[in-house]
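seq as requested:
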Amino acid sequence: MYYLGVDVGSVSTDIVILDEGYKVKEKLYLKTKGKPIAAIQEGFFRLKSKYNKHQIAAAGTTGSGRGIAAFLIGGDAIKNEITAHAVAATEIDKEVSTIIEIGGQDSKVIVLRNGIVVDFAMNTVCAAGTGSFLDRQAERLEIPIESFGDYAARSEFPVRIAGRCAVFAESDMIHKQQLGCNDTDIIRGLCEALVSNYLNNVAKGKEIKSKIFFQGGVAANGGMKTAFENVLKTEIYVPEHYNMMGAIGAALIAASEVKKSGFTKFKGFDIADSKFSTINFECKDCSNKCEIIRIVENMKNLGCFGDRCGKWSNKMAI
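struct tokens:
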């Protein structure tokens, strides 16, 4: 038997399958591209030839699109990213006290004590330090993002980059290029600036204690890892499946829920072949005027999302 986890984010949709020992059996990284339903279908299309519905003992969802994902696949657990990342980290190491999570378009800090989340903070306003921002700078420098760590390690005199804002950081980096600064010093300076931005904004006022896990796609950037270690004066640990921790956590939570309920709601992999469409309309029954999203599968109304009162989401669409 296996456990399925789906993490639907703004940049990527991650899908994992864990075995009975909670080890990663399968993992898929898919670009969401503003179409979470299509991303989930693509992932299920790849998996349906390897697994059948009855092999999946539990399915969980997380991420910004967790609601729609659970609705489509038949989720046994729907949890926020904070909980999912914490559960995945503590499954690996019970001594984790801080999680630094930086994804494609947001960043988080999660503080744990004795395996329990006691504090957290998120930054979804400024893109500085996120994966999409670093990818853009790597493209500008014409350097593979995978090489950022090697470049930063070779730097002897890192330049100062204004990292408090994505716009300012990019402008400052271009200015340093125009002054003739070499790429290694610019990249290390950029990593140091973005780490400073994270610690002074996202993690401001939080007690960052070891053991520290670095999760999310940006954890692959060795330059950022080293910059964190230099400032915090402690070792930063990057889990093997650092970019799948949300999905892993969702699968673990679902497994726990099914053990309590005794059954799974998982619908199977056949949704890969369904034709889904969405219809937007405005509910005018009150002053909220909610924008409702209706999901249609093979010309059949499945349900709705987007309302504040539950009038539409708590029942099948008519």
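The first strand starts at residue 2 and ends at 8.
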